[in-house]
Each structure stands twice: as C-alpha cells, then as structure tokens.
UniProtKB/TrEMBL annotation:
Residues 112-188 form the Methyltransferase small domain. The keyword Methyltransferase applies. S-adenosyl-L-methionine binds at E143, N185. It comes from Nocardioides piscis. The lineage of its organism: Bacteria, Bacillati, Actinomycetota, Actinomycetes, Propionibacteriales. This is Release factor glutamine methyltransferase. The keyword Disulfide bond does not apply.
C-alpha cells in the first residue's frame, strides 16, 4: 500500500506551514525527491509513494517541522554551479552569498593566474565556486572552526584549493602583498539580535559563523586590516554583511584610510548585501 504523491505532498506542506517553515512547498518536494533518490524536477514521474518511502518521508518532514535545516536532512547544498556536503557543525551556505561569489569570480576572471583568498570559508562554498568557474585561479581558503574545517576539507578535496585551519586575523603570512582578490562571508550578526535569528540558523549553525560583537562588525574590522596586508596595491576585497549594515559596513573600510572605490551592493531583493573596496595604490 502507498499514497498518491499529491496527497503525501499536501499533508507535508500543511505540516511544514503550520510549523512556520518559510518555504513549505519547496521543502516538502525536496524531501520527497530525496527519499526517492531523484531530482525535484523529476517528481512528476512518481505516482505513488510506497509505504516504506512514506515512513522515511514523514520522519524527515517531522524533523524539518522541528526546524532542522533542510540541507542537514538531505546532506547537501547547492551553491552556484557546485554541490556541497553540509551538516551539523558547519554554516549552511545561503543563496544570497552567490552574489558575492559572483563578484569575486568576475574580478578573478579578468586576470591572468589570479591569486584569490577566501577568509572564513566555512563549508568551502565560495572557494569551490571560484575554483570551478575560474580554473586558472590560485585559490586559498582558511577556516577557524575545527568542525567546519573538516567539512571544507571534504568539499574542497580534488579542487586544488589550498585550505588551511586557522584565524583569518593572521592567515597566509606567506601571501602578504601578493593577493589579487580577497573575499569573505564573515559572521555579522550583533549579539543583541539573538532572538531575531531564524531558528534554523540560531539552533543549528555554529555561533562562531553567526555572531560578531555588539554591532556585528568585529570580524569585518579584522577583515579590513588583514585584507590590506594580503592584497597587492590595487587589489580588491568583498565581504557580505547584514541588510541593516549597508552604511556601517562600508564605513569600517573607509575609516582605515587604506581603501578607495568603497561600494555597497544590493541583493536581488534590493537589500544591502555586500561591500567591496580597492586597496589604494
């Protein structure tokens, strides 16, 4: 015995919506595709969900309703053109960060054998995307958290990326003054914003990857200083920030006196999303 696909999905969507999941239709379909071992776009081929798969599906839906991240349940996340293994202990890459990665890729693509550094690499998402789309780039990445570094090792294996474990504040002394592009998705949530953070992130992402001092910009200040030492004159830096930091994040770079062409960029929803700057010559 089994149930029709449409019935299984409708029941799951209702449960996820009642639990406050932001995208119940998408998540239900993704989980059903996952238990069938197919892509979500191929779900139309499934007419009936067998009893065995139905039990697995219901168990995953229950975990998602408890606000466990979808990517933890499927074990993977997609970022631009690459797939990443993710799970407990590593920050789940967000779609909006693809814009920052795209900026870095665009700049690296305009250079011959560019040297690119990804600070706070987490799962390795940005570094892997750059290595994938700019095969001539010399890509380096660093992650402080031991568990996240383990995930990055898995994701960056075979890519040629130079991955290290350590603090971005003193990473890559051997590259000082030689880097063309520095990119970073640092922690940027103010400590006081704890209760406003989505349950999926607050309860499952490493806090080291989320929170950064009273104003959320402690890591950004470290980045502005470290990037000024890593980059060659005229090199560029890009960093993601919260949508409420569209003025304060660029100011972090402006007050140092090291940077020119300081710009803030919006995401596809029109919200301030990342800051870029060029090291003065």
């Amino acid at each position: 015995m089994g149930v029709r696909r449409s019935v299984a999905l409708a029941t799951a969507v209702e449960r996820l919506r009642d639990a406050g999941v932001a995208s119940p239709e998408h998540d239900a379909a993704q989980l059903l595709a996952h238990v069938h071992g197919i892509e979500r776009r191929d779900l139309f081929r499934v007419e009936t969900v067998t009893e065995e798969l139905g039990v697995r599906f219901e168990a995953l839906v229950a975990r998602r309703a408890a606000r466990e991240p979808l990517q933890h349940l499927t074990g993977s996340a997609f970022f631009r053109h690459v797939e990443l293994a993710v799970g407990p202990g590593v920050f789940t890459p967000r779609p909006e960060t693809e814009l920052l990665a795209g900026w870095a890729i665009e700049h690296a693509s305009s250079l011959t054998r560019p040297v690119v550094v990804d600070l706070c690499t987490g799962s390795g998402a940005i570094a892997k995307a750059i290595a994938d789309e700019v095969p001539g780039a010399d890509v380096h990445a660093v992650e402080l958290d031991v568990d996240a570094h383990t995930w990055a090792e898995r994701n960056l294996a075979g890519t040629g990326v130079d991955l290290r474990q350590g603090d971005m504040a003193d990473a890559f002394d051997d590259l000082l003054g030689t880097v063309d592009v520095v990119v970073c998705n640092p922690p940027y949530i103010p400590l006081e914003a704890w209760e406003s953070v989505a349950v999926e992130a607050r309860d499952h992402d490493p806090h080291l990857a989320l929170f950064s001092g009273d104003d959320g910009l402690d890591a950004m200040r470290v980045l502005a200083q470290r990037a000024s030492r890593l980059l060659k004159p005229g090199g560029v830096v890009g960093a993601e920030h919260a949508d409420l930091q569209g003025a304060s994040a660029p100011e972090v770079f402006a007050v140092t006196g090291h940077w020119v062409e300081i710009l803030d960029h919006r995401d596809l929803a029109g919200r301030p999303r990342f800051t870029t700057a060029r090291l003065a010559r």
